[in-house]
UniProtKB/TrEMBL annotation:
GO terms for molecular function: cadmium ion transmembrane transporter activity; ferrous iron transmembrane transporter activity; zinc efflux antiporter activity. One of its GO terms (biological process) is intracellular zinc ion homeostasis. It comes from Phyllobacterium endophyticum. Residues 212-286 form the Cation efflux protein cytoplasmic domain. This is Protein p34. The keyword Endoplasmic reticulum does not apply. The lineage of its organism: Bacteria, Pseudomonadati, Pseudomonadota, Alphaproteobacteria, Hyphomicrobiales.
């Protein structure tokens, strides 16, 4: 319950942080007329909408399992991340449209230093918040927070490039740098949007855990499967913050149901201690279902 409250609170505050940064960046564009700063502000609109979607998705993901969703609502966060990726792509296309207009009608920057100062302040806020979202997203295994944090961090890098480029444009008088920078921003966030969508689709496709995590799961099972003969058909999948683990456990055919259940409980408890939010399913089989010769190893994996 504490984790539920923490993640939802972070997602809720992300909306207000996004609105603050949007107001600052739009103010920077308003005082300068820079198409590069306009593109930066447009991406912040995406951040606000994405933060709202993430907050909604996180609230849904923490709902308990029900009759229609017996495995829970954990995947709701992936839909938020996909939406964010789509919005990023839309923002990039709108930026390219503005670039085309600026290219045909070059603009002189008004009050560039004031605009850059405002934009720089917004970027500092974004950098702090993106770092927090990424760290908390990893800690709580929240795809929505992680996607939001990575997107905002890309926004920070983009803003730094825009800042440096516009300083050069002001000092040299090369106004052409303004639309060129906006093109770089658009291409950068297009790439980021593609990555966000790709990662979220993998989650919706029941992607298994990483190889290192699989080896850790195998080690935990082996260390706590005393009394069993074999473990095989280990399968994993990730749904938001939950890791689903299932496998077949071979025991002596003469073993009682109670004794087999004790082994299963021991393995399940160990996995849940080592893998946060693990959901474990163990299928017990008699020794004639073994896939390797009995005695080959203590707990061989097939």
């Amino acid at each position: 319950m504490a984790q539920d409250t923490t993640v939802q609170r972070i997602a809720f505050w992300s909306i207000f942080i996004g609105m603050t940064v949007l107001a600052l960046k739009y103010g920077a564009y308003h005082v300068t007329g820079s198409v590069a700063l306009y593109s930066d502000a447009l991406e912040s609109i995406v951040n606000v909408v994405a933060a709202m979607a993430a907050w909604w998705a996180i609230r849904v993901s923490y709902k308990p399992a029900d009759q229609n969703h017996p495995f829970g609502h954990h995947k709701a966060e992936y839909f938020s991340a996909v939406l964010e990726g789509v919005l990023i792509v839309v923002a990039a296309l709108l930026i390219l449209r503005e670039v085309w207009i600026a290219w045909e009608t070059p603009r002189n920057l008004a009050q560039p230093w004031l605009g850059l100062a405002i934009n720089g302040g917004a970027s500092i806020i974004n950098a702090f918040w993106a770092s927090l979202l990424i760290s908390r997203g990893r800690k709580h295994k929240s795809p929505a927070l992680l996607a939001d944090g990575k997107h905002i961090m890309t926004d920070v890098v983009t803003s730094a490039g825009v800042f440096a480029g516009l300083v050069g444009a002001v000092l040299t008088g090369w106004t052409i740098l303004d639309p060129i920078l906006a093109i770089v921003v658009a291409l950068n966030i297009l790439w980021q949007g593609w990555n966000v969508i790709g990662n979220s689709v993998q989650g919706l496709m029941d992607m298994g855990v990483a190889t290192e995590e699989t080896m850790r799961i195998r080690d935990v099972i082996s260390a706590n499967a005393g009394g069993a003969l074999e473990v095989h058909d280990l399968k994993t999948r990730i749904a938001g913050r939950v890791t689903f683990i299932e496998f077949h456990l071979v025991v002596d055919a003469s073993m009682s149901v109670g004794d087999a259940h004790i082994i299963c409980d021991r393995i399940e408890n160990a996995l849940m201690q080592n893998i946060p939010d693990a959901s474990v399913v163990i299928h017990v089989e008699p020794d004639d279902e073994a896939k390797l010769p009995i005695g080959t190893a203590a707990i061989p994996f097939a």
